[in-house]
Amino acid sequence: MHIRTEQDYYALLGVPAYATSDELRTAYRVLAKKLHPDVALDEASRQKDFSLINEAYEVLSHPERRAQYDEHRWQMGIPGPGRKPVIPSCEEFLHQAEQLRLHMQQIDQLRMNHEALHDFVLDLLREEHLQCLASHPEHRRRVFECVFESIQSLALQLRPGLAPAMKALAGADVSLQKQWDAWMKASVQERRWNRYRPLIVMLCSVLICFALWLFARR
């Protein structure tokens, strides 16, 4: 089906963008019962509303369509999950990290919104969120792994901005700290290579042309 990105499907169902499948289902059932044409007083307007919530639920209840819709929102600069009003539990925090990894596996990463991903990770790894992982090292490691995998395609210039949050997430886990440091070192080297690559390519081209010129004179 055609996904209309101008429609805020989350707002139509009255749920946040981080809503679980169960929360989506519950919200849809409540609205469907309220807006169904058989019980609606204003049949014309309610019929339109009923059609919209059906469309919203059909998209958001399907993992691939939801990922596609979320990606369109990201490309338009609309944050995905937003902020929860309360500090999540360790299980909820891990679920958000796993959802991020799933989302990044499903989208076209060549066209993704890098700034939106950067901002989302910073929002996810806020200090008050990390507090819930202080006494749960296994959850901390799994969250780190999910987030780390999700940012592998992040633009090089945005990676340093995540360093404080990722180091805080790694905590005292030496292996995670080393994993992050190695990745950042490789990112720095890649940025340097990208900076000097045009010059190196140009010099190589000049040398090849000069060699061909010398060969042609013989």
What can you tell me about this protein's structure?
The chain has 218 residues and is mostly helical. The chain folds into two domains: 1-61, Helix Hairpins (Orthogonal Bundle); 82-218, no CATH class. It is built from ten helices and no strands. It has helices spanning 9-13, 21-35, 43-60, 63-75, 90-106, 114-124, 127-130, 137-150, 163-170, 174-217. Helix 2 (21-35) runs antiparallel to helix 3, helix 5 (90-106) packs parallel to helix 8 and helix 9 packs across helix 10 (174-217). The chain is flat and about 90 Å long. The N and C termini lie far apart (67 Å). 21% of the residues are buried. The mean pLDDT is 82.
Return Rg in Å. 24 Å
Helical segment count: 10
Strand content: under 5%
Structural class: mainly alpha
Helix content: 55-70%
Chain-averaged pLDDT: 82
Q: What separation lies between the terminal Cα atoms? A: 67 Å
Largest sheet properties:
none
**Can you tell me the number of structural domains?**
2
H-E order:
HHHHHHHHHH
Shape: flat
* Secondary structure: number of strands: 0
